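wait is this the right file?? whatever heres the structure
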């Protein structure tokens, strides 16, 4: 049985026209399916690299939606990734409706939230997958740089209404917040998903030329060994609360010579994106020194928003209460020069704030997508940047590793400015841009790269 093949090409007016290659054995209904798919998929989202200029849909046959068809599709690996030329890839996402076709299912939309591409940071209408009529098959297609990496989730919706009104950021954020409770990871994606910062379950997508993350392969496939973490409770008198602290040490031959790394959002690195096995692999390979890693819980989002953005009480409590206990839990070298703090988003802001204010305790910071716009959302130059520009924070030179995604425009711009201001103030700064968004898949690579860069002299 012949497939239907669809491609597009530019017309004389600069628009797009569809070219259909319909085998003689195909039906008028299938032709209508293709035409409908054009209406939903012919334009790329604002975060994509450009228009979807070629749609190869060889998977669309008279068997589409059958059990054998689904098995064959999953054997190819989902989402489907294919070269699109000029350093880009076409990506096709699928969702299988558990209620069957439109005749039996209440699902009328399946919104797709791709970090940095179709998410709430984009000034564009939300995107939904399209259903193949008469089947349980939903699909959506986009085109991205082959170096892209990021997470995504799907949101089935019984409401047939599309997003209404102008796509201003306030309205879009409110619309997405209403949909977040329906978010689910991609059940067809064989790689391990996780719960994101808002509690949404997401799935990973790595395009062929994305930066190397081979040390994460065992974690992604569920084959990583379960390495034991120490677990302690930090009771803070200054903060008036208690929280979990996890510790992992990658070697014990000379325990008092081990450098120390404090990882904010510790619950994420201990559980959601378990980092112990990647750290151990890099240590065994001689790319990181044996070290002590301390993962500090945030308690909850409310505490995180209050304690991490430039809060002196949090860092004084850590110095007065937590650091003295750490030496008993996991001996390490007590040296500011070999003590790093790391965090993402508010945690990135907090890490840089710590090394600038207490260089006698913390000699280096790793900031991943640091929120240097704080405290006024929408303004690229936040308080810390303004203080640097006014001549503050010249106490002692610190070493700082910054990473931000090109698809998180405000944060990227703020990090570029911060790099300039830190360098002008005499600090040693490395800024590493990545092709991604405000995304844990980028942060996990950035954290390891930052550790290697900051501790290279210890090898």
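ok assuming it is, sequence goes like this
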């Amino acid at each position: 049985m012949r497939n239907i093949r669809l491609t597009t090409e530019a017309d004389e007016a600069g628009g797009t026209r569809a070219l259909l290659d319909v085998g003689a054995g195909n039906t008028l209904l299938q032709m209508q399916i293709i035409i409908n798919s054009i209406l939903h998929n012919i334009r790329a989202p604002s975060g994509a690299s450009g228009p979807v200029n070629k749609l190869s849909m060889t998977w669309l046959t008279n068997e589409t939606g059958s059990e054998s068809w689904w098995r064959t599709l999953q054997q190819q690996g989902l989402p489907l990734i294919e070269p699109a030329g000029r350093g880009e890839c076409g990506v096709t996402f699928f969702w299988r409706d558990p209620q069957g076709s439109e005749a039996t299912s209440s699902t009328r939309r399946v919104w797709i939230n791709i970090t940095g591409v179709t998410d709430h940071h984009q000034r564009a209408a939300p995107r939904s997958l399209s259903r193949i009529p008469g089947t349980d098959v939903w699909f959506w297609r986009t085109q991205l740089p082959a170096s892209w990496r990021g997470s995504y989730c799907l949101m089935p919706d019984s409401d047939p209404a599309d997003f209404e009104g102008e796509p201003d950021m306030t309205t879009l954020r409110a619309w997405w917040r209403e949909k977040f409770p329906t978010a689910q990871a991609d059940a067809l994606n064989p790689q391990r998903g996780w719960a994101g910062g808002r509690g949404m379950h997401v799935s990973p997508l790595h395009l062929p030329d994305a930066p190397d993350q081979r040390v994460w392969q065992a974690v992604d496939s569920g084959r990583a060994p379960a390495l034991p973490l120490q677990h302690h409770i930090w009771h803070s008198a200054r903060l008036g609360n208690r929280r979990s602290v996890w510790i992992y040490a990658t070697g014990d031959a000379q325990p008092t010579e081990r450098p120390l790394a404090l990882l904010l959002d510790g619950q994420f690195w201990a559980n959601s994106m378990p980092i112990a096995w990647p750290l151990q692999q890099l240590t065994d390979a001689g790319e990181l020194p044996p070290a002590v890693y301390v993962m500090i819980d945030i308690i909850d989002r409310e505490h995180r928003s209050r304690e991490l953005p430039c809060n002196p009480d949090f860092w004084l409590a850590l110095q007065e209460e937590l650091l003295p206990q750490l030496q008993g839990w996991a001996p390490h070298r007590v040296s500011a020069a070999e003590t790093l703090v790391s965090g993402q988003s508010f945690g990135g802001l907090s890490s840089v704030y710590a090394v600038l204010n207490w260089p006698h305790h913390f000699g280096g910071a790793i900031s991943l997508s640091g929120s240097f716009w704080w405290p006024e959302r929408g303004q690229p130059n936040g308080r810390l940047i303004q203080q640097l520009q006014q001549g503050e924070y010249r106490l002692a030179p610190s070493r700082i590793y910054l990473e931000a995604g090109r698809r998180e425009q405000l944060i990227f711009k703020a990090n570029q400015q911060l790099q300039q201001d830190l360098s002008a103030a005499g600090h040693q700064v490395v800024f590493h841009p990545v092709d991604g968004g405000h995304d844990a898949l980028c942060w996990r690579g950035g954290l390891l790269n930052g550790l290697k860069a900051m501790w290279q002299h210890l090898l």
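The radius of gyration is 24 Å. so i think its the right one actually
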